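anyone seen this seq b4? input:
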Amino acid sequence: MLLLAAFLLSGCAAKPTKPKLPPPEVAAPPTTPAASRLREAIGYYLSADYHYGGASATALDCSGFVMKTYERAGIKIPRTSEQQFHNGKTVPTEKLAYGDLLFFNKYCQSKYSYATASIFSGSFPKDEQPSHVGIYIGNGRFIHASASKGGVTISNLKDDCWQRSLIGVRRYLPE
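predicted toks r here
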């Protein structure tokens, strides 16, 4: 039994192999100088690994990725996802624009997220505290530093889990 547990845990402890990401494509190129700088800054962090609490060019967490990317683009924003969520301009989801920050609660991390999301739709209370943040890059996609993917990755906002855990959008880019 102990051998079986060790075998199962070794799979969880292994670092996932992270493919090299191509530069993110967008529905339309960024139209402002600030958005263009942000796109260049995103490219700088594409190969970064995930590290909780990290904020370096090679290892960062989700809010560290967002903060450092914006900083590299010349825009200062707060460090944590909670601080980032409580600042910036609130934007309705239907008005998403390149560079907007997307905030998610822990729904995707719960044991119910994948297996029962469709069956119990709306049955779980929506936690309004952010636990994850990413940057919208167009075409329904966002880029973020993900622990489960091992680093900076691109995800589809239309995926069920991301839709259900989205709790807000904030804009930091000047218009």
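The two ends are 60 Å apart (CA to CA). The helical segments are 2-13, 33-44, 62-72, 81-85, 160-165. kinda curious what u guys think
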